[in-house]
Amino acid sequence: MSGLNLNHVTKQFGNFTAVNDVSLSVPDGTFVCLLGPSGCGKTTLMRMIAGLDLPTKGSIELGGADITAVPTHKRDLGMVFQSLALFPHLTVGENIAYSLRIRGTPKDVQKKRVDELLAMIHLPGFADRSVAKLSGGQRQRVAIARALAISPKLFLLDEPLSALDAKLREAMQVELRQLQQRLGITTIVVTHDQREAMTMADTVVVMNSGEIRQAAAPVDIYRRPADSFVADFIGQTNLLPVVADSAGRASVLGEMIEGISLPTGAAKGLLSVRPEDVQLTAAGHGAIAGTVTFIRDLGGAIETFVEASGTQVIAVSSPRNRPDVSVGQSVGIRLDPATSVVLAR
Amino acid sequence: MRREPPQRLADYGPLFFPAGMLIVFFVVPFATMIAVSVFQREQGGFYTPAFVFDNYARFLSLFFGKVLGFSLFLAIAVAAACVVIGIPFTYLLSRSPRRIQIVWLVALLSILSLSEVMIGFAWSTLFSRTAGITNLLVWLGLMAQAQALTPSFGAVMTAMTYQAFPYTVLVLYPALVRLDPTLTEAARTLGASPVKAFFTVVVPALRNTILATLIMVFIFALGSYLLPQLLGRPQHWTLSVLITDQAIYQSNMPFAAAMAVFLVLVSLGLVGLALYAGQQRQAK
Q1: Using alpha carbons only, how large is chain B's radius of gyration in Å?
Q2: Do the chains contact at B182 and A83, CB–CB below 8 Å?
Q3: Among A53, A68, A268, B160, which is least packed, fewest CB within 10 Å?
Q4: Are the beta carbons of A79 and B191 separated by less than 8 Å?
Q5: What contacts 24+ positions apart, CB below 8 Å, involve B44-50?
Q6: What is the ipTM of this complex?
Q7: Which residues pair with A216 in a beta bridge?
Q8: For the segment B226-238, what is each residue's pLDDT rounded down to a tens digit?
Q9: Per the CB < 8 Å rule, is B191 touching A52?
Q10: At which of A228, A260, A275 does a domain end?
């Protein structure tokens, strides 16, 4: 099978299990984001793919060949480090040409390739500059160009944009995604920023405590989270307790809701409802009763905080559909079963 | 915080004490030495103030030229040996667990507490025929018969390298600890084997530190006068040995001072040359 395959990969540091039995299949040409809070094992997983750490158990295949024991320098990959790790004693051009020089590529071919890559990252004519004199965004681009110099089979980026300011980061996300689509290169990015993952990835792999919680397309992750961790980590969500009576009818915050059911046998669960799917209406008529406790008007969106049976529910609406409520007012909450997901508690 | 250049004389206050110490303990003695170097020696006595260049003229001979050449060669060889052994050693040390690092650093620091005399006699015992390391090799069956390794050039080199090695590590250590470990990892992902990554990234990135270490060990080794006497033959004696000989045993202060001044000038010239070469390569 081509592409990148991780088979039951486990990494232990002493008694600590950083990555626990992870299996993942990445088809050629896809853009995958490993997403999770710090310490979830995403960087360790990437370092094992790069060969900088060896798995305790399991195997890694690339293009059908087992590369678990192949040393890093024979893997033909490109990697961008969080610190960028540009070589301070080399110029921009020498940095980019490093992988070609190591492989004994003729000087004129090196020069041609460097010019090509500098044009690609929109820094033509920068070859003779010192890397110390570049701005953050320029250093970022040089690190990317250096990693792509040999046209690697696999492109790895470890928190590549974390050092940039918010605006530049968003621009670089779009640029990186466009670059990947143009080159069609299999790319794996480690990030803790869910917006970054949603912007760039074909597949988002959400990790926590060394395990994959869900691997799916960004929209699927957002719309159909696999568990409460994923629902809570990706975007904002309301996690509301669901209880079932003896007849199996489910109720949320004391109100029966049509179309929502718990898995057979389960008495308790959680309902994940995105704030933009929470509808505020007049009290009564089968709506969940609540009281408005706080309104946050962010200009582009209005967040209404409602307390219902001791649980806080957040509703988000656009200024066009501004809810006609004020703090202290009793309101009704309506949930649409089609946009809600029942999760195990 | 913005640092402004000192405005008033009082702003230079913190500099007065170190400047005073420098004048009392360095400038004045050195000036005295320069003065003495042009004084007239009195046979059987001390010296009388004068302004003659006889003392300098005296060592413009093949003999002193050879001794000077050997002194510089020995100092450069010791500096090179220290750096060649010291860089890989310190690199591995900076990448090892904290506890191992502390043990090694304490051991190296304790070498500094040993006087040159002790180091010299310890090595002359180790290199001797009766109690030396060759007995160990005989016992292991690697040698037929124990033999004396001293006096020899190798013995002088070994002891001087041993003595200068802690300084080498202490100068290299901070730079290597600060060196971003991802630099070598980046080199490996770009196709360099660990050894190649070391020579194409670690060594060039530390060029200035390495140059500074070379100069420091060079100057340190240039002043060594006991070890060449203890472990070497007369042809391994350095200019420092001759200076000691002239100053203490021949009581020819003006000649010793002239040699010392000359040695300082030559080593300053060499250091300047090394710095200049370093800057030229950086500007490239």
Answers
A1: 23
A2: yes
A3: A268
A4: no
A5: B46/B251, B46/B253, B47/B253, B47/B254
A6: 0.80
A7: A204
A8: 898 888 888 888 8
A9: no
A10: A228
